[in-house]
Amino acid sequence: MTTILRTWDLTKVYEEKEIVRSVNMEIKQGEIYGFLGPNGAGKTTVMKMITNLVKPTAGEIEFFGDKMTHRSYEMLKRMGSIIEYPVFYDKLSARENLALHGEYMGYYDVKAMEEALELVKLSAVDKKPVKQFSLGMKQRLGIARAVMTKPELLILDEPINGLDPLGIKELREVFRMLSREYGMTLLISSHILGEIEQIADTIGVIREGVLVEQLAMDTIRNQHTQYIELITGECTKTVYILEHKLGLTNYKVLDPRTIRIYDDIPQLELSKAMAEAEVELESMSKKHHSLEDHFVELMGGAGIA
Ligand SMILES: Nc1ncnc2c1ncn2[C@@H]1O[C@H](COP(=O)(O)OP(=O)(O)OP(=O)(O)O)[C@@H](O)[C@H]1O
Question: Whose CA is nearest to atom 5 of ligand 1?
């Protein structure tokens, strides 16, 4: 897969504080990259640097292998974005807004405009001024405006923020359509895991300006599947059996009574070994380590789900 965007040690300092710290992000062509992190983690700042709204303090950004500078106008034309809230002429209709934008961008193409409105299901909303639009409609119009010029990379900062469940569902369908049918690459930020995990191919997690994880969703799902949880009053003895009798290494002692085993071992074999060593177990159960658990751990307990 071709890399469309890569950042090398991207850093931003505001008032002597590193808001973004050496971020190495890699976005592949055609994927949906979910950029996840709690409020204030630095997502918007990274996106602003990518779209040339803010100058990096250090580090580099490459778009299709070419280094970006603040004069890379041709590269920037190949990106579409909505950073923070989209602003419109609110007395004008959706079509009038798109037409104005097209003229301004030197890209007046009625067919592209109609296609964009169709894509976000706004083509039937004819004369209504934008000020009468719901938040979801405004977000969709923002997307229509951003995709009208057929960008290769679409950057959306918290597009789902404030939307009701129906609005979220509609937007998700738009994202999938853009990715699958138009082959567009999407970088979407959110502080809510549930919104991102359903659509992202890759997830990048940012915490206090540091990219703490960047992995394919499939890998994350496979890594965090099942484990066996043991509750026992004889933790030390149990650990000894796990290591020396069963040769297990991938386990975690959660507290003096709870052990989680991530190694793949049949429960029967485990209980037999414990019985032979006369270890008393209060319980043994197979459990699922949810993605939510994983991300909450990764964020150091910050609620992002
Ligand atoms: N121009 C600025 N000057 C000083 N500090 C700033 C500036 N812009 C952002 N910050 C600070 O940088 C930090 C990261 O902000 P940023 O908006 O990038 O985070 P975020 O992850 O997008 O969060 P949110 O979802 O709340 O916008 C915050 O602490 C913010 O106060």
Answer: 14
**Six token digits for residue 177:** 């359509």
Residue 20 alpha carbon to ligand 1 centre in Å: 9
The verdict on domain 3-216 having CATH code 3.40.50.300 is yes
Under 8 Å between Cβ of 265 and 272: no
- pLDDT exceeds cutoff 70 at 167: yes
> Exposed (0-12), middle (13-18) or buried (19+): which is 63, by Cβ within 10 Å?
buried
Domain boundaries, the chain: 3-216, 226-288
Answer yes or no: is the C-beta of 39 below 6 A from any ligand 1 atom: yes
- Asked if 196 and 190 count as a contact pair (C-beta separation under 8 A), the reply is yes
ipTM value, please give it.
0.95
* Residue among 88, 105, 85 nearest 44 (CA): 85
Which CATH class, in words, describes the domain spanning 226-288? Answer: alpha beta
Q: Are 121 and 141 in contact (CB under 8 A)?
A: no
Mean pLDDT of the chain: 90
Ligand 1 neighbour 55 (Cβ under 6 A): no
Atom 30 of ligand 1, residue of closest alpha carbon? 40
* Distance of CA 17 from the midpoint of ligand 1 (Å): 11
- Would the CB of 43 count as within 6 Å of ligand 1? yes
CB 53 less than 6 A from any atom of ligand 1: no
CB-hemisphere CA count at 13 Å for 25?
Answer: 32
Ranking 170-184, 188-202, 211-225 by mean pLDDT, the lowest is 211-225
What stretches of the chain show up as alpha helix (H) in DSSP? 43-50, 73-77, 94-105, 110-119, 135-147, 165-180, 193-197, 217-223, 235-240, 267-276, 291-298
